[in-house]
Amino acid sequence: MSEHPNDYIKPELMACCGAREIDDGDIVIVGTGFPAMSANIAKHTHAKNAIMMQESGVYDARPARPALSVGDACLNPGAAMIGGLIDVMGMFLQGGWVDVGFLSGSQVDKYGNINTTAIGDYNRPKSRLPGSGGANPIGALAKKVLIITLHNTRSLTEKVDFITTPGYLDGPGARERWGLPANTGPKVIITNKAVMRFDRETKEAYMESYHPGTSVDEVVKLTPWKLKVSDGVHETETPREEEMRVMREIIDPHRMIKIYEKRGYV
Amino acid sequence: MSKVMTMKEAIAGHVSDGDFLYIGGYVCRSPFAAIHEIIRQKKRDLTITRSNAADDFDLLIGAGCVKRFISTFISLALYGLARCYRRSLEKGIPHKIEVEEYTNLSLPMMLMAGAMGMPFIPVKDMVGTDLMNVKSFLGENKYKMIESPFDGTPTLLVPALKPDVGIIHVQQADEDGNAQIWGIGGDCKWGANAAQKVIVSCERIVSREIIGKDPSRTIVPSFKVVSVVEEPFGSHPGYTPGFYDQDFGFGYVYQQASNTEEGFQAFLDEWVFGVNDRTEYVQHYIQRFGYARYTKLQAKFDYSYPVSYSY
Questions:
Q1: Domain B1-300 has CATH 3.40.630.30
Q2: Fewer Cβ atoms within 10 Å of its own Cβ: the N or the C terminal residue of chain B?
Q3: Average pLDDT value for residue range B285-303
C-alpha cells in the first residue's frame, strides 16, 4: 500500500518509535501486534536485557511464532515462569516492578485517558467495546505507558466518552489525588502521523515529531484539541537499518504487521 | 471415592438456574465441553465471571443462559468484538444482560479474596476512572473508597467473590478430583478455589499415584471437587498445553456465524444441540473438517526433564 522511499511501511515506523522508548533492562508488559513488535525490536537492538511478560501469567516467553493473543499457546514452551494473573498483574505490576506498558485504544484524549468500554452513552452504547481487561491496571501502575492509536478526529478526542484507563485524568495533580503511585502515567502517544509527549506542567499531549510525509500543520489539523507544538519539533526518525533488518529477518519474516495498514495505519 | 461422571450428570447435578459460576480459562483450557452442556440443558439466569472472557462466554450470552456478568473484558481476540455480547447490550437480543465491570487486576484479586475467606481486598487500580462511575447489580457494594487506616492514603476496596460453582478444564485429575495444570493459568486457581464446589473437566483421568509424582502442579484439592469428567479435546476451539493447539480456523467459523442471529442459531444447532456430548462433537468435527485437520491440532511432544520429590 504505502511503501515509503526507503521501503518501510507506517506500522513499522510506529513499532520502531515504540522500541526506542524501551531502555535496556526494562520490564515490559506486552500485548500482541505493535507492542510485541516494539519490545522485540528493542530486545534485538539497544535493550538486550529488557524482559517481556504477558498478563495471562507468562514471564520471559520464547515463542516460536508471533503470539496472536496474550494467552497464545506458543507462549508456554520456553518461558522462564508461568503463573497466572495474580502473579503478573498482582505481584509484578501492582507490586511496582513493571517499567513499561503498551496500550492501544479506540478513543484517546489529550490527557492520555483511554476508552475501550463504550462509544456513546454507556447505558445505550452506539458501540459496545471489550472493556478494560488489563489496560486499566497497566495505565494506573506501569512507570511508562506507551499509547498507540490512529491519528484522526474520531480516535483522538478532547475528552473520551468513558475513561476506562487513566492517563492524567482531568489534568495536573489528578493521579496524585487518587493515590496512584508516583512517577507513573502515559509517556507518549504514537500515532500513524506523529509522536506526542505530555507537558510536565499541564499534562496535555503536545507534538514532538511528525512522521515523514506529513507536516506540523496537517497533524495539528487532524488533532481535535488545540495541539501545542514543541519548540524542537522535527520529522520522526525513520527506521534504522538495524531495526529494519531485525523486523524483516528475525521478528516478522512473514510481515504480519502489514495487517495494520488495512486497519488504517498508513 | 470416585467422583467420575459424564458432563451431562455433572451439569444436571451441580449447576442450577440462577447460580453464580466461575468459568476458568484464558484461551488456554477454556471448558468448552461444560459450556456446551450448560447450553444444551438450557440453564437460565446464571451469573458468570472470569477475567478476559472470550467466545465461550459469548456463546452462553447468545444462548440466553446469562442474566449477569461480572466482567473485565470480552472479545473474540483475533476475530474482533464479541458479537452476541454486543447484540445483548446494544439491541437486547436475546435479552439485555447486566454487566458489572472490573479489571484484570481487581477481578482476580476479588477471587483470591473469596478463596481465602476474606470479606474484601484493597486494589491499586480503577481509581479516578469511569469504572467507578458505573454500577450495576452490585450497586454501592461494587467498591468502597476509604482512607487507609494505616497512613491515610486513598484506598480502594473491592468485595470478595464466592461463586456457587467453579468449572475448569485441566490437563489431568484423579478420580477424587485432585486437579493438575501446566501452562498459562489466568485466574483459574483462585476462581476455582473461591467457589463452593468445583466441576473438573480434564483431558485425562490419572491415578492418585501419578498425581503424587508431581504434586506441585495440583491447583484444586479433591475436597473442593464434586465432579470429575474426562473430556479429551474438551477445550476446543481453545487449547490445552501439551495436548492440542488453538483452532484459529474454527475461531473464524464462529465469528462468521455469530455475525447474525440466524447464523448464531445455526451454529448452536450444529455444534451444541446437534451433538449429545463431546465424543459426538469430536466425531462431527472430523466428519466436517477431515481427520487431517484434527490431527494437525494435536501437540507435538517436548517433555521436560523428570522431577523427583524423593528424599
A1: no
A2: C
A3: 96
Cβ contact, residue pair B186, A56, below 8 Å? yes
Identify the structural domains of chain A with CATH numbers, from first to last: 10-262 (3.40.1080.10)
Task: Determine which of B81, B130, B132, B301 to mutate to test the interface with A (most A C-beta atoms within 10 Å).
Answer: B130
| Cross-chain residue pair B90–A127, CB shorter than 8 Å | yes
pTM of the entire structure? 0.96
Q: Which of A125, A162, A179 sits opposite B89 (nearest CB)?
A: A125
B161 has a chain A CB within 8 A of its CB:
no
Q: Which residues of B touch A122 (CB under 8 A)?
A: 130, 134
Contact B184, A75 (CB under 8 A): yes
Domain range list for chain B: 1-300
Reported as a single tens digit per residue, the pLDDT across B273-287 is 999 999 999 999 999
